[in-house]
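[step 3/7] fold_predict: job queued, chain A
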Amino acid sequence: MLRVGGGQSRLTPRRLDVLLDALPGDSLYKTAVRNSLSDDDLADLASEPPTGHGRWSHTDLLLADIIDRLGVVAWALHAYETPPEPYHRPGIVRRRRGRSNPAIKAQIEAIAREHAELHGYAIDDPPT
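[step 4/7] structure written:
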């Protein structure tokens, strides 16, 4: 029960609001709140830019890793001139690392040459 000043538990309405707001998006509470909103209210909320960022699930992190790996493959196949930046993860500040391992670079170039031969184009052709 909420009491003035929080009572013995010190659980004030503001503290309860902070605790509920910090729950993950797939929690029962947040799901119930979303289910209680009308379609128009949900559309209004979706059109607003997100404020802050919350914790990413394991699936979110795996999807970001897949995006990064696809970017490297596209770069290896000459879709990009330079390696793409890693997909931004909230709360993580990354410094760009040089991808200069000669063995890996040679292997990627060999794969790209083989792909070009199989599909009848030259590696130096601009992407279409």
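[step 5/7] annotate
Helices lie at 13-21, 28-36, 39-47, 58-76, 102-119.
The longest helix spans residues 58-76.
exit 0
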